[in-house]
Amino acid sequence: MDYTRWETKKFLKINTKKAKQLYGMFGIAKETHQLAQANDEKNRKLREAFGIGEFDKKKIAEKKTEEAKEAERRKAELVNKQIFAST
């Protein structure tokens, strides 16, 4: 069954209106975003209370790199001490 453009628009308009009335589709999306925002705020407060920092992948990677460099520096320092101690 082929519908004209007008019939299709009318059908969509009526059904969209019904969906809004019955399910409040657009209200649910707004509520979901508000809940997510409230959850993020709660998590931020908990991290702050327990002294846990933000989970930033870049910062974590930089920290690991710095720790690796520090370990290499300590290892080299230890080797130098052993060399000078043996002479």
Task: Let me know the average pLDDT.
Answer: 78
> In one word, what is the shape?
elongated
What is the oligomeric state here? single chain
Beta percentage is under 5%
Helix content: over 70%
How many individual β-strands? 0
Radius of gyration: 31 Å
Report the order of strands and helices.
HHH
- Major beta sheet summary: none
Question: What structural category characterises the helix and strand content?
Answer: mainly alpha
Distance between the termini: 97 Å
Number of helices: 3
The low-confidence runs, each spanning 5 or more residues with pLDDT under 50, are none
Total domain count: 2
Q: Helix and strand layout, with pairings?
A:
Elements: H1 5-23, H2 25-50, H3 57-86
Task: Give a verbal description of the structure.
The chain contains three helices and no strands. With 87 residues, the protein is mainly alpha-helical. It folds into two domains: 16-54; 56-87. The longest helix is centred in the last third of the chain and has 30 residues, at 57-86.
Structure at a glance:
The chain is mainly alpha-helical and 87 residues long. It is 86% helix and 0% strand.
List keywords for this structure.
87 residues; mainly alpha; 0% strand
